[in-house]
Amino acid sequence: xxxxxxxxTWRIALLILLISGIFWLGAASARIIIGNTLLQTGTLNxxxxxxxxxxxxxxxxxxxxxxxxxxxxxxxxxxxVVFLATMPFKLRENGWLMMSALLFYLFVPVEIxxxxxxxxxxxxxxxxxAEKEAFRELFIARVAALAGAPLIASLCYxxxxxxxxxxxxKKRSAAL
Length: 176
Fold this sequence. Notes:
Helix content: over 70%
Number of strands: 0
Order of helices and strands: HHHHHH
Number of domains: 1
Largest sheet: none
């Protein structure tokens, strides 16, 4: 691919990465907020005051938001690969970009595992008439998945935003 085509490719990949990243992190944050309202603080016990109909509606919302998370994560993953493969920047000179890529790709297995659980919830919501207990079981499995690794992943994703803004470990040119 010639350099002009490469220039356009990495820029388009970056634009797609940014837009899908906004959808992904926004939907993931919404999922966390919705999920936290279902549980008693600091426990895996469901709140007693939530009516069965309200709880069922919250599971429906979780399923819809999880669908957005899965779709946008797949787009983020694909566009990040294209961006890194075609960008003109050298990772050796842009430590912030290397750290961002490492933080992102380190948690791909965690995301895939939790996407499988989310996919089961989406399937239950849209293709079956499952009872509330099936959703509760999947939800608890999702929250307790991998001993908190999804929470650590979320913190790393927000760290990537800070790295992109402040760009630490960027090799500066001597002629300033």
